[in-house]
Amino acid sequence: MSQDRIRGRAGQRRARRSRSALRGEILNLPNMLTMGRIAAIPLLMWIMDQSNELTEGPWSARYAAFWATALFTLAGITDFLDGWLARNLNLQSMFGRFLDPLADKLLVMACLIELVNLDRTPAWLVALLLSREIGITGLRAIATEEGIDLPSDRYGKWKTAMQMSGLIGLLLHFTVETDFFLFTASINYHRIGLALLLGSMVFSLASAGGYLVDFGRAAFGRLRERVSTNGA
Q: What pTM value is reported for the model?
């Protein structure tokens, strides 16, 4: 048997193993949950569109708002669950590390854009939040390429918590009599959600500033090392 044929068969076996490994990564439980989160985005936007009181009527709109909130909350739970499963079942993968943050950003971006369409949040606020997300994602991609680690800081964690809570409030939107076991009160979820989203913007900008400072320090530090090495 010729060497070329042997090498050809070996290459085919490696390609089959590579495809099999990728298929295994895509079909593992954490990544399927992540892909389910992405698949839920069109459904969420459609239900949100049904929660418009002007076009659907008050009762149908409230009903749709409840289900939109439930679906968004369920998607948030899967975000925690897929990471927990990946760590505890030793199912972490490159595909999952790429897809998980992308799914989170797509979900939040779709929700914010639809909230502007429903006139529940100002367009300038959404533009600012989305610009920050896109900019920091690009910065982290550059940092990864350069071997610079940019870990999440406490401002980023506060931003995420307030943003998700604010979005839930804006999805509920309506003033609802809420039972707190010991007492009942009328809660305007729109005002609460908007206040939390505005608060998340403050932490979002603070977190972005921290990323820029950390990246600048690391980049200039590496530049000084290269200059000193070349000078030596």
A: 0.80
